[in-house]
Amino acid sequence: MRLNQKVIIITGSCTGIGKAIAKRCVEEGARVVVHGLEPELGADVVQELGPGNAVLHIEDLAQEGVAERLVARAIQTFGRLDAVVNNAALVATSNLHTTDLAFFRHILEVNTLAPFALIKAALPHLKATKGCVLNIGSVNGWSGEPDLMAYSVSKGALMTLTRNLGDTLHREDGVRVNQINPGWVLTENEARRKHEQGFAADWYKDVPAVFAPSGRILWPAEIAAAAVYWLADESGPISGQIVDLEQHPLIGRNPPKN
């Protein structure tokens, strides 16, 4: 097993990509702290993974001290900490005209500052296990769709954090920090957003080729499979790297309308 006996905190793992990562990590021998905002969904995930393999922590990442409490939950339950996956994020529509400072600050608080806080809180334990951090970004971090301005900026800042700490923490503490940037992924929340925007229930079955040359968008399990490499010892000394997981060169932007 590629993650045998490793203990991993995965934020935002009650649904979507985070849930898929948690499931794959347990399949590879890890034990996980499942985190999110949905108690019922989180309890279902823990039940599916097995109570001996997972523990649940429900709390908003914008709350003061949540990072320390997540780390404490891992240590109290499993006795060690080997990795952190910063997956949780607020994906909210906004552009220059619809974004005020309070909204922007909240997006940055959850998507950028919360990962920083969790890395900082986890560092003493990650240093002891020569562990790692995997940040889950977005191809939107390179520029972003017009109506994902605040979200895109928060993911761009996360990339800089990954590059900076990937160098610093690796040299000083032996802790690797890397990032994967998923493209368009069919998560529960993405399906709901598209439904709210007026798309048909089966919209994902007919995605234009410019977005999905393969005929479909990505599955959460495919992102999880990629995540395991960065969490496993097989990725060796690689640190400070950012990898885009997408099938076309439209890096975070829609093509212009004719």
CATH superfamily: NAD(P)-binding Rossmann-like Domain
Structural class by helix and strand composition: alpha/beta
Would you identify the CATH architecture? 3-Layer(aba) Sandwich
Question: CATH first level: which class?
Answer: Alpha Beta
Q: Which whole number gives the mean pLDDT?
A: 93
Instruction: Report the β-strand fraction as a percent range.
Output: 5-15%
- Unreliable sequence segments: none
Looking at the structure, the CATH topology is Rossmann fold
Question: What is this structure, in a nutshell?
Answer:
By secondary structure, this protein is of the alpha/beta class. The chain is 43% helix and 14% strand.
What are the key terms here?
alpha/beta; 7-stranded parallel β-sheet; 258 residues; Rossmann fold; SDR family oxidoreductase
What would you note in describing this structure?
- With 258 residues, the chain is an alpha/beta fold.
- The protein has a single domain (7-245), classed as Rossmann fold.
- It is built from 7 helices and 7 strands.
- Strands 3-2-1-4-5-6-7 form a 7-stranded parallel beta sheet, with helices on both faces.
- It is globular and about 55 Å long.
- The protein starts with 6 loop residues before the first strand and ends in a 13-residue tail after the last strand.
